[in-house]
């Protein structure tokens, strides 16, 4: 791709940030509160708007219900628009209620399944008010012990809740079904992998697609293979980007394994699926437990941009020629040449051309925003993770 096309593709790129990443979070052992964190959904949106203002590529923020529950979602949407951002995906929560000890939509108790499904339907009402396209579903459902419940019945219960929810979606709305290998269930999770999510999405219809959370796989899983497969099948709807060293670590994307992120983004570029018009939501799903939150989110956005720029720089003609010729070493070298390119000057230039500061993190530190929120906000809320 010639440089000007690379720049155009990078200019068009969109990354969605999650409301919960701006709030206090921690592990099961301790939450370390930070001064200045948001106390309300409005303040989370204001922080997301700041990230967009400095990066120019993060114009939407995902909400989580009930963590971002408000009385008037239309007013919240108008508030976001005034700050220059949109409300993105609506994330549901059927994992933080006493009732869900044995599962939500797969619970053996029909009354609890009803309550969980009603929450999913309520989230669609919220989407109607916010104009959100995507309903993001992640289920903590599963079992800890062999024999605890019937694995197959649980799939039937899941299918029926998903069907009811899917049928309630408007024509412009989509369902994103996220999978996760384990945690909090340790023996058998009801949506443990991309294959399970894919099979349910196929059964549901074309507006149901898979969400890949990069932290939700077994060590060594080839995530770019999953990306390529789902793109070919037209069933990749979204990413929850983050980094993992061990399990669902939710660290900054591109921190643990920037090469993996590059390989993922190469499959996106290979499928011409980067442009927002293709329909993939590139979201972050992270928790900044010990590092400053807004700069960490800016860094994450920049990490995705850098991996994308490198993926765009792959000489696809040369790669194809080497592949066709069976030239293993040359094909690998073409890919590595792009990966080993320092794209930071290119991205700095792009920002300057767009009227942005070439160094968004330095710009944040100079902006006075952190001092302002520390002075104005007392007693920030916890995102909901790690009590
Ligand atoms: C949980 O492990 C999943 O990654 C969820 O996507 C996510 O963290 C949650 O939906 C936030 O609400
Ligand atoms: Zn996730
Ligand atoms: Zn997760």
Automatic annotation (TrEMBL):
Which GO molecular function terms does the record list? L-rhamnose isomerase activity; manganese ion binding
Instruction: Give the GO terms filed under biological process for this record.
Output: L-lyxose metabolic process; rhamnose catabolic process
UniProt keywords, alphabetically: Cytoplasm, Isomerase, Manganese, Metal-binding, Rhamnose metabolism
- Give TM segment ranges: none
Q: Tell me one Pfam family matched here.
A: RhaA
Name it: L-rhamnose isomerase / sugar isomerase
Source organism per entry reads Amycolatopsis tolypomycina
